Amino acid sequence: MSKKDNAGVAQILAYLNEKNRPYSAQDVFTNLQKQCGLGKTAVVKAMEQLAQEGKIKEKVYGKQKIYFADQSQFADVSDAELKTMDARVAELSAEVQTISQSCRQLETELKELNSSLTTAEMKAQIQELQAECSGYRGRLDKIKSATNHVTPEEKQKVYKERETYVKEWRKRKRMVTDMVGAILEGYPKSKKQFLEEAGIETDEDHKVTVPNI
Hints:
Blueprint: H1 3-19, H2 25-36, H3 40-52, E1 56-61, E2 64-69, H4 79-115, H5 119-145, H6 152-184, H7 191-198
Antiparallel strand pairs: 1-2
Helix pairs in contact: 1-3, 2-3
């Protein structure tokens, strides 16, 4: 084997001993691809070599082989140490959960910031709004300086006149309706024909209705 292959084998062995968990050759190739630079075939051969030399253990599950560190090289762990490890794992798991939640919050804030206006866009929008406000102020100044304002008294007078005209409109419409109805009782033709012959134009002909008071 070349020096590169030997270095790769040593790196794979160190990795399996450090992680101390089962891996397939594909897992090791994926995880160490950048570090050791070996191809998949070289990784498979290296792991088979380590297994044959007894430096790692091999288990076959169907068509797949699983490799893991030789457990005999590790010292026995007492129940107290296992409990301590379990407590540490739980502690780290809680820490990971807290950090993950914080990351999600930061990602949400980042999305909001990315969708917000940039400083240049905000400055341009502020200038646009200021120009718009200036235009409104100019219009307001013209309105305030005008001398033809309608006083509340004049406004009330217009409303009362409108009310009077609407009442008169309704009154006359009712009178005409009653008169036409009385004539039609002895008229041999239809109401439409009578209105045409009499030259009477209705509100409906002009598509208008009596407004509410």
